[in-house]
């Protein structure tokens, strides 16, 4: 599986040792509030594989489809403590913890490993754009005042390095995501 070190998602096919020496980009520490009003920190992701996406509860476009498709991954790794799913709200001024819990309940999300996160808008947008490279082709050109809306699911390995990007609106790509998660898990 490739590594991704830049916002243009140029794949780097490296051994784990080469990646340790070459791939400097990692997901930094962060703290946000989850749907259960608990602080969720990136430290929770140490030595775990995770998938991130960016949604908002009032979205009537791609978000419902993405959430339904992410349930494929939820089902595949339901009780697996080594796999986390993170859905960051891009409208945190609307999506407080209660609203995110209502959203999770509406979609019948039962896994304790799927966290819906809210917090300060500028921090979420900065993390999305500069760490997860959530908007391909944009790189770092947008700032936190530009609305963030993307269909991407970003796969991150146990060392917090980006290993995959998938179109979350396409079931076929999400099925590939599930296979890739299994590959990364086998390396733990």
Automatic annotation (TrEMBL):
Transmembrane segments: none annotated. Coiled coil: none annotated. Belongs to the SCO1/2 family. This is Thioredoxin domain-containing protein. It comes from marine metagenome.
């Amino acid at each position: 599986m490739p590594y991704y070190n830049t916002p243009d998602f140029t794949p780097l096919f490296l051994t784990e040792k080469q990646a340790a020496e070459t791939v400097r980009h990692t997901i930094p520490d962060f703290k946000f509030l989850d749907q259960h009003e608990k602080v969720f920190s990136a430290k929770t992701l140490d030595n775990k594989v995770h998938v991130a996406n960016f949604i908002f509860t009032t979205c009537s476009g791609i978000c419902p489809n993405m959430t339904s498709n992410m349930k494929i991954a939820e089902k595949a790794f339901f009780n697996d403590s080594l796999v986390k799913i993170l859905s960051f709200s891009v409208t945190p001024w609307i999506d407080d913890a209660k609203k995110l819990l209502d959203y999770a309940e509406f979609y019948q999300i039962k896994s304790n490993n799927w966290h819906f996160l809210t917090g300060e808008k500028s921090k979420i947008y900065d993390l999305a754009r500069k760490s997860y490279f959530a908007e391909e082709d944009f790189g770092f050109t947008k700032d936190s005042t530009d609305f963030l809306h993307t269909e991407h699911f970003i796969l991150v390995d146990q060392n917090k390095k980006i290993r995959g990007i998938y179109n979350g609106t396409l079931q076929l790509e999400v099925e590939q995501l599930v296979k890739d998660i299994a590959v990364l898990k086998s390396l733990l």
